[in-house]
Amino acid sequence: MGPRLFGGQAVAQALMAASLEEDSGRLAHSLHCYFLKPGMADEPVEYRVTHLTAGRSFAARRVEAWQGALCIFSMIASFHRPEPGFRHADECPYPLDVEAARAALAEWRARGDDGAEPPLARRLQRRPIEIVPIDPGSVFGGAARAPRAAWWMRRRRPSGAGPEMQRALLAYASDMLFMRNAMLPHAIQPGSHDVQATSLDHALWFHETPDFDRWHLFASESPWAGGARGLSRGHFYAEDGRMIATAQQENLMRPQGEALERLAQQEAGAPPPA
């Protein structure tokens, strides 16, 4: 929460605005969006939908989010009528055991390895999506880690929603913690004074209709960071191992303050300060 509009909320609401324009049985299968300007959480947002093209199987819609005279967000979403086809998918690289993850989170909190519960963990408790990391230290801890993590996600209160809203729920969740992967090797967290961080663009592909009233595992990684940006990608898996969706995002992660000074010294070959 906070003064700025959460990026996942803009993605989800824009997707629902586009979905409400569909009346032919087509469902969203992909979206590509840009976060153009910071939105304010306490100001209304107007979503304007433009019909780009429509055929018997596919349709494309552009959605722009406006706050007053400022366009803060732009999305193109593609819709596809369900049809049969060849199938294959990568297997989930993590154990599909949400109860083991819940036990690990409870144990981590009881041990207090990282002192008091981090602000990031407390902030997520106010979101409508529940999150249970497979390795809590990699998500909430402050030590440097490999740039990959996985966490279980579901709606806190069952919605019984239809396929359009279920896609929107996953779209909302897909922006939660995603940029964390690119920051893990550098021992920084979103919201810290060491980094200016925000989502720049976001892409999402739906392979099946999710049921976000139930648990989904988001297995993600960051293959690259540089130039004050970081790239993350990941897959959503249902509890039975089916790949449900794929997401990719580039984010701003601009070092500042002491972190920027340390980085400048490292690039100059100077020893770090004692």
UniProtKB/TrEMBL annotation:
SUPFAM superfamilies: Thioesterase/thiol ester dehydrase-isomerase. It holds the Pfam family Acyl_CoA_thio. Residues 2-80 form the Acyl-CoA thioesterase-like N-terminal HotDog domain. InterPro entries: Acyl-CoA_hotdog, Acyl_CoA_thio, HotDog_dom_sf, TesB_ACOT8-like_N, TesB_C. The keyword Cytoplasm does not apply. The keyword Transcription regulation does not apply. Residues 137-251 form the Acyl-CoA thioesterase 2 C-terminal domain. Keywords: Hydrolase. Belongs to the C/M/P thioester hydrolase family. This is Acyl-CoA thioesterase II. It comes from Pelagerythrobacter marinus. The lineage of its organism: Bacteria, Pseudomonadati, Pseudomonadota, Alphaproteobacteria, Sphingomonadales.
